[in-house]
Amino acid sequence: MRVFVDANVILDVILKRKPFSVDSAAFLSLCEAHKTALAPHTVSNIFFITRKDFSERERKAMLLDILSYVDVVSTGRHQITQALKNDEIGDFEDALQLECAREFNADFIVTRDPKNFTGTTIETISPKDFVAKFGSIG
């Protein structure tokens, strides 16, 4: 199974966003058992978004930890062009996430906002539903 992770799932864990952080953390603990990836821009976005909450050293350590069990999808002109042409998804960042998931041949996009990925043939699923469907923690 190939699983693509949306940025909001990782940010929920890092920033301890309630009530989402528990389900997202449970999902991330399952990632080592599945072929899992994220988009390259997710790394830079997380690094930037968390700058007020963590030092540079802490942010690098967190991202290196995540990258120890999650791959990064190669992105190029084709994926960016397709995302820019996507009129079904209103948010460019989500359209780019979708193109990265396609490049990865993902079976699932794990996201807290499945409605943001309308019109895709890749199944979107919340972290909570993924854990319920494919494994439990503990």
How would you describe what is shown here?
The chain has 138 residues and is of the alpha/beta class. Helix 1 (7-14) crosses helix 2 (20-30), helix 2 (20-30) packs across helix 7 (127-134) and helix 5 (77-85) crosses helix 6. It has 7 helices and 5 strands; from the N terminus they run E-H-H-E-H-H-E-H-H-E-E-H. It has helices at residues 7-14, 20-30, 40-49, 56-67, 77-85, 92-103, 127-134; strands at 2-5, 35-38, 71-72, 108-110, 123-125. It starts with a strand and ends with a helix. The protein is globular, with a radius of gyration of 14 Å. The model has no long low-confidence stretch (mean pLDDT 92).
Task: Tell me how many strands there are.
Answer: 5
CATH superfamily: 5'-nuclease
Return residue spans where pLDDT drops below 50 for at least 5 consecutive residues: none
Count the domains: 1
Mean pLDDT: 92
Strand order of the largest sheet: 3-2-1-4-5
